[in-house]
Amino acid sequence: MAERFKNYINGEWVDAVSGETFENINPSNIDEVLGLFPRSTKQDVDNAVSAARTAFNHWRSVPPPERAEILFEAARLLNARREELANVISRENGKTASSCLGEVQSAIDMANFMAGEGRRMYGKTTHSGLRKRFAMTKRYPIGVVGIILPFNFPMALTAWRVFPALICGNTVVLKSDENSPETTVHFVKIMEEAGLPKGVLNLVHGFGVDVGEAITQHPDISMVSFTGSSATGRIVAENCVKRHAKVSLELGGKNAVIVMEDADLDLAIDGVVCGTFSVSGQRCTATSRVIVHKDVYDEFMKKLVARTEALKVGPAYDESSDVTPLINKKQLERVLSFINRAKEEGCRIITGGQQLKGGVYDKGYYVQPTIIDNVTTDMEIAREEIFGPVLIVFKTDSYEDAIRIHNSSQYGLSASLFTKDVNRAFAFFDDAEAGVCYINAPTFGSEPHMPFGGVKKSGQGYREVGWAAIEAYSEVKTLYVDYSARIQNVQFVEKD
Ligand code: NAD
After folding, report:
1. pTM to 2 decimals?
2. What does the pLDDT read at residue 490?
C-alpha cells in the first residue's frame, strides 16, 4: 500500500479538505505508485493563506540575521541527508541519483548564500538635494508569497524560491508540482526541524487548475513566483496583473549553442551532448538548437552523431544511464508529435526519432536521443520548446548569420558560444538575446549566487537566484529624515 502524504498548513500535516488524493508515479517504473498525495482545492489554499497571513505579522519583525540562523541549520540538515534526498528525487523525477546529488548541493548552496544575505540585504544612502536632509532606502517583505513549481528540479527550484522569500521576511504558500510532490515534503520537514515557526511555510499539493489558479487569484497573496511553461506563465501573469499582485515568471527556453570555426570541437561536442540529452532534455536551459560554422560542420556532425548514438538510454535506478525517461505519457506524446510534424514539414531525422520499446522501456516513457537537420527558423521544431532529447542543427557561414539564427527565437533563456576568439566572445554577450550567456560551456550550469532568468518569452524582466532574488522578494521603501527644523521641499527649493 502506497504511503499517504499530506499538506502542511500552519505547522500541521493535514489531508486535503476534500479527502481526495492523487498518485505519484515512478517514471522509471510506471507500475510503481510512490505515494498518494492530497488533491487540494481552493479551500486548502484559503487555509494555507490564512495561516501564512497570521504568521507574517510575527515573521516580518524577526531580524534577518535571526531568520538566517534557520537557513544555516536547513543547510546543515540538507547536507546530512543529501544521499537520502537524492534518492527521493531520483525515484519521483526519473533522474539518476548521482545527478540528483547536484540538485541537493544547489539547495545547500542557496540556503547558505541566502542566510548570508540576512546580514547584507543592503539599502542605499545618498545625498539629498536639500540641506540637512537624509535620504535612504531599506528593503521590506512583500507579504504572503505564492510559489508555484514545475516538475523538473523539485529540490533545487524549491530552495531557489523559498529561501530568498523567507530571508526577506515573507511567508510562503508553496504548490508542489503534481509529478514531483514528495521532494517538497522532505524539504518542508527539514525547515520544520530547522526551527521555522508555524505558518511561515505552508505546502499545498494538487493540480494547476485547482491549487495553482487559487493561488494566483487569492486576494491575500501579494506576490506569485511562477516557474513553468510560458503558456501557463501567461495565465498566471494575467491573473496576477488583474488584481495588482507582484509576479515573477521563470519560463521556457529554446536555447542554442553556436560553434564557430575556431572552436575546440571535442569540447563543443561534450557541451552539446550533455546540454541536450542529460535528464532527457527536461531542463529549461537544455540545448535545443546548435548552430555550426560550415568550415567545421561535417567533422562536428560526424562526431556528434557517433557520440549521440553511443548514449545509453535507461531507467534512473541504473547509474550507467546517460538518458533517462520522460516524466509522463503526456510529455512522451508531446515530444513524438513535434518530431512527426517536423518530418511532415520536410526536416531530416539524422538519428533517433522513435519511442524505445521492450524490456525496461515498457515500464517508462523513453525517446531515442534525436538529431534533426534541414530546418529553417520559421518551422515549428525551430520555434517551440520541446522539453525532450531532441536537437536541431543549423549550418551557418558567419558569426553574424549565427546570431541572426540565434535571435530568431521567441525565447531567450540561455545561450552559449564555443570559440577561442576573445573579441567574438565579448561581442556575443552584447549580441545574444538571452538572460544567461556562456562561453565554451553548455547552456546549463547557473550558479546559486548569480542572477538567473530570461528575456522575451522566457521571463518578464525579474531575475531570481543570487542577489537578484532579494530584489524580487522584497519591496524598497524610500526614507527621508529632515533635520533642518523647517518645512522644505525640492519643489520649492530656497538657496541660502
Ligand atoms: P507547467 O507550466 O505545465 O506547470 C508548472 C506548474 O504550474 C505546475 O505546478 C502546474 O500544476 C502549475 N499550473 C498548471 N496550470 C496552472 C494554472 N492555470 N495556474 C497556475 N498554475 C498552474 O510546466 P512543467 O511541465 O511542470 O515544467 C516544464 C516547464 O517549466 C518548461 O517550459 C521549462 O522550461 C520550465 N522551467 C523553467 C525554469 C526557469 O527557471 N526558467 C525552470 C524549470 C522549468
Report:
1. 0.97
2. 77
